[in-house]
Amino acid sequence: MVGGVFVDLSMHLQQKMETKLALAPQLKQALGILKFSMQELENYIRDEANANSLIEINEQHDREILIEMARLHQGELYSYTNAEDESFDPLTQVASKEESIELFLMEQLAMQKHLERVEKEVILYYIRSLNGDGYLDCDVEEVADYFNLPISQCENLLEIFQSFDPAGIGARSLLECLVLQLKRKEDAPKLSISLVQNHLEDLADQRFDFLAQLFNTSEEEVLSVLSYIQTLNPHPLIQTEDEKTEYIVPDLIVEEFNGEYIIQINDRYLPKISINKEYEELLRANANPETNDYLKTKLSDALLLMKGIEQRHETLYKVTKVILEKQKPFLQSGKKALQPLRLKDVAEIVELHESTISRAISDKYIQTPLGVFPLKALFMRGVKTESGSVESIITIKDKIKAIIENENVKKPYSDQKISNLLLLEGIQIARRTVAKYREELGFLQSTKRARDSK
């Protein structure tokens, strides 16, 4: 009794209903496989094979690629009759040599299925004309004369070769090597390419005040660009002792055919898996119950792994198909043609959750006719206009750039004024967002632009 009131301190057993979301092991595994990068998936397959005696892995790479590499390696095209003959072993033709950068470059060349035979021979010539630093040790005119081709065609083939990894390969000078690397880096400072192309000697001579005045910016900004440039590798084939070059293996390959874009899942580097026949026969022979249960569990695990990889490929294909349907202008015209695209947009079309789309594009790369890009790079935020259309951030930045470049230099527009001018075009964007984009474009605020113009 407490204060004249009886308090029941006895324990009662009550039922309480709660809703909890628990992922089934199969779904958890499938989502994990979907998120894996190519390297992570390869490691996961090997780990699973080591832990499961029913899983067999086949190390042989894609036969078509190896045959093509063998042809390139021999400097001639084998007939398909020879290639299919049992005595013809692409592995002995290619892998007999010590693994080298030449092998890696030839592997990339073998993937260029759209090239004619003579065009592949030209790029093979380039590969074999590299010096120890990765620079091209021949003239394009010399190559054009040797193959009896137009110089312009050989220049185009050199551009294809220079799109190979590592970045900077096939450059003809330090300047070209640095520019090739900068063009691949999305986070490269705005002035970096211009400074390298036109003022590399001024940077080396530390003429920071001159460059700051020339580009209407601060010395700190020039120093920042120089620091970024110093992170580049002037010798593409030379690594530091502590550095290991990691080459990007694209998860997807997109090729143009008669104006259409064909998507291919690039699984040729993954170990091929199958069920061990001996253990499968042992299971069918109905061994003792304990062994039978063990084998059934391992068989179930093996089939789940195979199903998970299959689902990964299907999801990647569906997601990429939607992305490319939206970003076809990008494939035709480059980065400036990227259209606004959100995870939500893709999720609604493929009828999957946004988190699944996020997993599908995480650490994935896509090889396109324009180069290799992170799949995430094909998503672009946008701003809805009064008309209901959506303008991409790139387009809005271009508009801000045009407004600033055409302003009265003695009376520059404030960020709020730029916001108001965009509103006249039906684009509602906050002043602080304008300030953010202006800074990303490398423009100073209006008061400093006015002061610098005096």
Automatic annotation (TrEMBL):
GO terms for biological process: DNA-templated transcription initiation. It holds the Pfam family Sigma54_CBD. Residues 293-450 form the RNA polymerase sigma factor 54 DNA-binding domain. Transmembrane segments: none annotated. Residues 92-279 form the RNA polymerase sigma factor 54 core-binding domain. GO terms for molecular function: DNA binding; DNA-binding transcription activator activity; nucleotidyltransferase activity; sigma factor activity. One of its GO terms (cellular component) is DNA-directed RNA polymerase complex. Keywords: DNA-binding, DNA-directed RNA polymerase, Nucleotidyltransferase, Sigma factor, Transcription, Transcription regulation, Transferase. It comes from the Bacteria. Belongs to the sigma-54 factor family. This is RNA polymerase sigma-54 factor. It comes from Lysinibacillus composti. The lineage of its organism: Bacteria, Bacillati, Bacillota, Bacilli, Bacillales.
